[in-house]
DNA sequence: TTGAAAGCGCTAACAA
DNA sequence: TTGTTAGCGCTTTCAA
């Protein structure tokens, strides 16, 4: 049986309230007595009972806000699933979670949602941000008011956010490069199609891929990076053009979206399977292409954890006062082939 | 704020105790009243508060036993880590976890440990089994006494265990086959080295690999399966012999242990890198070989979850009466290259 | 068959 | 500065 406050109180010859004040630094206590109590608690291996604490604090009621942009995308559905699961878990401990979904990316609406959540009494907020000055200011403002903010999926560098939960995008590009280097035949050319030149994530993936692939395969030519602005039609046109210009194209790395367009172009030219495609994100469409063998590898993000972790980290921070373990909580870089899709 | 028993009692015009009896089927209650209360609870969306329940039940104290064989191996250290984390988590809810570690595989000691744990009052047991008749009988005996048993890492087929947590080994072999098919050049031969011909896991991996690889690459010859009995010296000798006999050997799949031996033999013959190696298990030694590029891929087991899940499933079963979601809780089949090792 | 009440470990308000 | 006490939501025992 675990040690209780009462047992420590008895051991120290004081009351339960005094032990509580000592161990939780609530002040209004003699410093020496507090020290002595802390030492005793330590020796007895005291671990606060979660259930007792949750019950006692349930009137104070912790509320956690979550702002998810691009909530209508398949990837974010996984994130939302993780956040909902975390919600169910902390609700059983008496806390509340409010989730605000925003279609597309819209910094203005994200800022607005954050203000709403603060007004609703949220004690902490997790947000999928975009790189935007107002959003950064809002994060800093909240942090100043002692409302911890966690960025997830995407980060706001240099802001006062508590921590970031998401993928190490540079490393993700390197993972793709390693795989591509393993499966390409000798010679030929490889093409990188990115999404937006301004997106941090896309940029980092591209950089990681180019740097590592260059080191691994000097025999393969690397074509200039193309941008499809996350548009399948663009991706298709780029692929068509490149196929015409470079007959020895053997590999395509998609740093963002556009799988459908790429595959369509390859199919039209009868190059399916001959040009090896590696892409990102385990969307259901991408997964289908993987199953059909039209893509070789998908690099996944573990969206579930990206939704789950921020809520839990905030809950632990607010409920237990526990600081997050790392400033960058990188989620796993998952490699999927058609064979390890289900788990 | 969530709905409480008290609120339902007020709504139904009865006492809290009556509501409790109705919702938890404790008997000693008028059936019609019980029905009415259940309906009201349903309408109000009642979800029992975990903290309250944990606190009230803390005198009854749930104890969960864990028996881990081969506990001295690096892989099982991960499993133990997961079990310890689960322990910490359920201890905070007032439960206890007793972990019994056994070096090597020893069915007799495992049976003994299970009896000890039952004598110590365990309400449920998770065990890493071997295929052994006494062990199976013990599992069935405990299940008959209403002490749920979960097998993890390895299974006892046809026993009365509640569920199995671990890898789908057949599928794991197919994953390796898919990767091997992607990275081997045309022609040549591939060799499969398994561990024990009697081990279910090794056998399934081998079968999965052979079946899938045969479908994928008809141009590559498949040599007879060799067995190294998890011994590096054996693996080394096998590799040496095969390298001599088949100059066009281009790939080796290790269904069990023996990476060190294989790599040593390849190095001696100057074939390192030329013969592509895929193996299982993220042991620190294997990871080192992966980092050095001597192995192309490692198929991992997610040992952490294999230790964590069984304890949590047992806790939920005993504490909440919640049945496990699936009979086979397959853990993810993780693909690791040198680039996605850290997460 | 039902109600009333004690108590699980903790926090917080109040009293001393 | 310290002790006392009510109460969080639930289970369980005892009394009606």
Can you offer a commentary on this structure?
2 copies of one chain form a homodimer. With 343 residues, chain A is of the alpha/beta class. Chain A has 3 domains: 1-48, 434 Repressor (Amino-terminal Domain), CATH 1.10.260; 51-165 and 303-330, 3-Layer(aba) Sandwich (Rossmann fold); 169-300, Rossmann fold, CATH 3.40.50.2300. Helix content of chain A is 48%, strand content 16%. Chain A has 13 helices and 13 strands. Chain A has helices at 5-12, 16-23, 31-44, 50-57, 74-91, 107-119, 133-144, 169-183, 200-216, 232-245, 259-268, 284-291, 303-320, and strands spanning 63-68, 96-101, 124-127, 149-152, 163-166, 189-194, 221-222, 226-227, 249-254, 276-280, 297-300, 328-330, 334-336. The A-B interface holds A 1-2, 47-52, 54-55, 58, 61, 91-94, 171, 174-175, 177-179, 182-183, 185, 212, 296, 330-340, 342-343 and B 1-2, 47, 49-52, 54-55, 58, 61, 91-94, 96, 171, 174-175, 177-179, 182-183, 185, 212, 296, 330-340, 342-343. The first copy, chain A, binds a DNA duplex (16 and 16 nucleotides) through residues 2, 4-6, 14-18, 20-21, 24, 26, 28-30, 33, 48-60, 94.
Give a short summary of the structure.
2 copies of one chain form a homodimer. With 343 residues, chain A is an alpha/beta fold. Chain A is built from 13 helices and 13 strands.
